[in-house]
Amino acid sequence: MFFAHLSRSLRETFPVRASEWALAAMLFNWSIILFLMPDLFATVDAFAPLAKLMPQTTFAGMCFLVGFGRLVSLAINGTWRRSPHLRAFGAFLGSGVWFMISIGIIRSGSGATGLGIYPILVLLDSYNVIRAAGEAGLSDHQPRRVAKDGHPS
User: Fold this and answer.
1) pLDDT tens, position by position, 36-93
2) Sequence-ordered list of residues with C-beta below 8 angstroms from that of 67, at least 6 positions apart, any chain
3) Which H, E and C letters describe 14-46, residue by residue?
4) In angstroms, rounded to a whole number, what is the distance separating the alpha carbons of residues 78 and 12?
């Protein structure tokens, strides 16, 4: 019963949130790479400016918390209850991380190929913020409409 509900719910919500799932997984995976390769910021010129912001382990922890937190909130949203507020907050944090990475690569002057990717991730997560915030607004106002006239709208 539980697995049937889980499967049905994810089939219904995944297609519209595919970019949120992908960006959350990318951020989570980024954290794993940073943990597994502890000298990456020191050896890759494109990431040298990030090392000036914070130690690599701190950056890895931040990416882990944001990425894993987003994956959990998406799973909750798709299976148990709607959580557009958490999704909007997670996308906001994610866009901030992608922005830091983008600026770091720009400031490094390396012209790394990441300049073709990370700014797009910033824009995509910014779009996810707007979309999830819109859903949050709708879910906030729906109970008021029902409570106002006593009938579902």
Assistant:
1) 999 999 999 889 999 999 999 999 999 999 999 999 988 887 666 677 889 999 999 9
2) 24, 25, 26, 27, 28, 29, 30, 31, 94
3) CHHHHHHHHHHHHHHHHHHHHHHCCCHHHHCHH
4) 8
Q: What is the DSSP string of 91-146?
A: HHHHHHHHHHHHHHHHHHT---GGGGTHHHHHHHHHHHHHHHHHHHHHHHHHHHHH
Tokens 């720009």 belong to 106
Q: Indicate the residue type of 90.
A: G
Terminal alpha carbon distance of the chain: 30
How far is 33 from 102, CA to CA, in rounded Å?
Answer: 17
- Pull the structure tokens for residue 33: 């790479």
pTM (2 decimals)? Answer: 0.84
Q: Are 143 and 153 in contact (CB under 8 A)?
A: no
pLDDT tens per residue across span 78-134: 666 677 889 999 999 999 999 999 999 999 998 778 899 999 999 999 999 999 999
